[in-house]
Structure formats: structure tokens, C-alpha cells
Amino acid sequence: MLTYKELIELREKLASGEISLELAKAQYWKDFKEGQRSWHTKDWKERRCEFIKCKCEICSSNETLTLQHLSHPKKFSEHLTEVTKIYAKDYIDSNPEIDKSELRNYILKNYDYFPAPLCPNCQSRKPNKRIRKVPQYFCTECRHEFDETITKSLDELISTFYKNEEAIEVLDKCFVSNDGWKNKHNLSSIRYWLQRQRTKNQDAEAIEKKAFLLYLNDNIKYLSFEDTITACKKCASTFDLYNMELCPKCKAYYKGVQYPTCVQCLPEDKRKTALEKTELGKQMHELHKGLGID
Ligand SMILES: [Zn+2]
Ligand SMILES: [Zn+2]
Ligand SMILES: [Zn+2]
Fold first, then answer.
1. How far, in whole angstroms, is CA 156 from its chain's centroid?
2. How far is the CA of 222 from the centre of ligand 3 (A)?
3. Distance from residue 45's CA to the centre of ligand 3 (Å)
4. What is the pLDDT of residue 33?
5. Which ligand sits closest to the CA of 249?
């Protein structure tokens, strides 16, 4: 795993174009073991010592201090999805139209069509199916009775879509993707995925590079300890540390986002209650540990 410094160098080289995306990825993933955490590396342990403070940033106690991260880096695949979405939006804004036959071919290749049953007389949707009566179907719209429903062909449905995107039958999620995910889509979402696919084909390299740079930024920020808080064991187990922010009053201690100030800045009586609660939290924690349910 690369050290903090090496990671920053890698980011600079990639951003400036000094090295290719392929090479940057190869260097990054080289001795990256799946599931390995930065806190197992020597570099991380050494740097951690420089950042841990001498007292808890929530209650100022100095008992068993730990350094807690307030945020965690996202996975590369998550960045990739986000960047692809942004590129797709730009692409769609400048290329809103899709040729009818291209949409049709894309559907034939990627989806199975399950047409909705319609009344043969008025084409209303979902005629009532009766269990005991003959003929089997009854249309509540035109009161027609019949034995068999009709359906719209794919071409008819696509034509309707090009005339009116808000038409009810067009909104039906009557297409199931044949890629194993079995996603149910309607025509407008299929068009989106087609356009997104085109964006990916067109800008694959740029999308990956942007996502990889964001991913490196995330990891550099994590390793910089910028977003960390020193907490005592009590506070670490009592407070939800992911929802902490700097107290606006003293700007020295941390507070839960749901509280107006930190424990230190509360009025005397409230501070006592808060500290008692922290103490109670600790006792509960120890009790659970003793009972083996922690
Ligand atoms: Zn504390
Ligand atoms: Zn009817
Ligand atoms: Zn404060």
C-alpha cells in the first residue's frame, strides 16, 4: 500500500498527465490487498502519533485516547458511478434526441417486453378478468365482454412514446433487462440507460480518470487525519462520532450535530446531566461487555 506522500505524488503525476491512468492504477493497486486497511501500515501508525491530541476533544478527559475518523473514503466503484452520472447528464443535455430505430434495436438487444393486456374494443388497460363468467373479460371502460385481450406491439408502443412521453401505456415498466439483474424499466428509463451507455463508450478514459482522481483525493484526505477527532474511550463509545462537528461557541471541542454546543459550553446544570449521561453510557457499555453481549 502506498504511503501518504507517495499517494500525493501519484495524484499530482496523474492530474498533470505525467503518467497515464493505466500506470497510475497499476501503481496504486500493486500491493493493495483486498480488505487491507491503511491502519495496518507502518506509515499510518507513525503519522497517527503526530495527530492524536493530549485530551479528549469532547469532554477533555485524558483517559485512553483514540483517534476517530469522522468520514471514510468511498470505494472507487462509487466514484465511478457518480462521475458517470454527471457525464451522462451533460451528454443528454446536448444530445436529447435518440433515433427511433436505435432505441428499438437497443431494446431488442437488452430487454424482454411484457406487454400489458388491453381491451380489444377501446384499448383501455387492465380489463377485469372474471373467474366464473364467460366470456372471461369485462372492460370497465366500454363495458365490452370478450375472451381474449390484445396487446400493443413494440413498434406501436415506441411510436406512442415519440408522440407523447406522458401517455399512460408508455409509463408502464413493461421491459425487463436480460442482463441478469432483471431490472424493470419503462421507455424513458431505457432511453436514459442507452444514453448513459453511449456516454460511457465515448468518454470512458476521461470518466475513469476523474473518478480515480476523486478516489485518490478521498484516500489522501483520510490519511491526512484532517477529518479526525481525538476522543476518550467513554466519549467514543457514547457518542455517534460520525455526527460530530466543531462547537460554534468555543471552536475547541466537538459536539453532536443535534446539540447546540459542546459539553464544555453547556450551562452548569445541563453540563452535569450530559456528563452523567456519558458516565452512564460507559457503565452500560462495561455491563454489556461483562455479560458478553457487546
Ligand atoms: Zn471524552
Ligand atoms: Zn373497452
Ligand atoms: Zn464549546
1. 37
2. 25
3. 29
4. 66
5. 3
Same domain, 114 and 185: yes
Q: Is residue 16 part of a domain?
A: no
Sort residue 292 into left (φ over 0), alpha (ψ -120 to 50) or beta. Answer: left
Residues 32-38 have a mean pLDDT of 63
Output the pLDDT for position 294: 46
Whose cell is 462495561? That residue is 286
- Count of domains for the chain: 2
Nearest ligand (C-alpha, residue 141): 2
In a domain, 52, yes or no: no
Interval between CA 161 and ligand 2 midpoint (Å):
21
pLDDT above 90 covers what percent of the chain?
A: 53
Kindly state whether residue 264 falls inside one of the protein's structural domains.
yes
Q: Residues 84, 192: one domain?
A: yes
- Tell me the three cell numbers of residue 226: 484532517
Ligand located closest to 263 CA: 3
Q: Are residues 84 and 199 in the same domain?
A: yes
Residues 156 and 85 both lie in one domain: yes
3-state secondary structure of 31: coil
pLDDT above 60 for 12: yes
Q: Write the CB contacts of 288 (distance below 8 Å, at least 6 apart in sequence).
A: 294
The answer to whether 3 and 33 have CB atoms below 8 angstroms apart is no
CA 124–ligand 2 middle distance (angstroms)? 5
Same domain (yes/no): 117, 163: yes
Task: Compute, in angstroms, the gap from residue 56 CA to the centroid of ligand 3.
Answer: 13
- pLDDT confidence of 252, banded at 50, 70, 90? confident
Checking if the pLDDT of 293 tops 60, the result is no
| Residue 169, all three cell numbers | 401505456
Whole-number Å distance, alpha carbon 60 to ligand 3 midpoint, is 11
What ligand is nearest to the CA atom of residue 137? Answer: 2
Name the closest ligand to CA 68: 1
Q: Which residues pair with 256 in a beta bridge?
A: 244
CA of 221 to the centre of ligand 3 (A): 25
Quick check: is 166 in a domain?
A: yes
Name the more confident of 147 and 34.
Answer: 147
Structural domain boundaries, residue 250 = 232-294
